[in-house]
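quick one, 218 residues, struct below
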Amino acid sequence: MSLRAETPAPPSARIRRFSRAERWVHRTTAVLMGVCVVTAACLYIPQLAVLVGRRELVVRIHESAGLALPVPVLLGLASRAFRADLRFLNRFGPHDRVWLRAALVRDKRHSSRPAGKFNAGQKVYAAWIAGATLVMLGTGLMMWFTHLTPLMWRTSATFVHDWLALTIGVVLAGHIGMALGDPEARRGLRTGAVSREWAKREHPLWRPWSSVGPGSPQ
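---
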């Protein structure tokens, strides 16, 4: 009887998904957004406000994090890979409409959800969170510099800022929940690489191993 040890299976091939600059932009933005959400909760939820105290300090941290929120993205524009992914996120094709229809009817079959490097849900989320961040920044500045706008504008800005903050909190919770359900996607953001099998299954129209042509659905 042979006692020869079995040859271990070769590790699955991994392909690059995100550059170091892109991962830095995502992590820094996530930290700043987290600070904004946590400090906002401490300002608006009485139980947390009493527990934390030092309201003036919390306000200053909230304002600083909010002002710094666009900075990682602006710095990331110096990266060619980051600019390329922004173009992919801004490109909405017929396959994205198919993906959204499948999502609306809760069809979870991979064959019914074609996706390039980013799926339609990720594109919609990226567009929405970018717009919401700009609105939050604008309304926050109106609330901060009270002498620059009339009282009616500041009142409206406060209303929009507060309710949009609540909406962002809910959307972020959903975003984090979906990320927790996909370890390989998290690994891609942590290391920059994903398995070839995962890429073919979740993003079948993405062709990272070939050149990107003008008609690519990535």
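Residues 13 and 196 are 6 Å apart (CA to CA).
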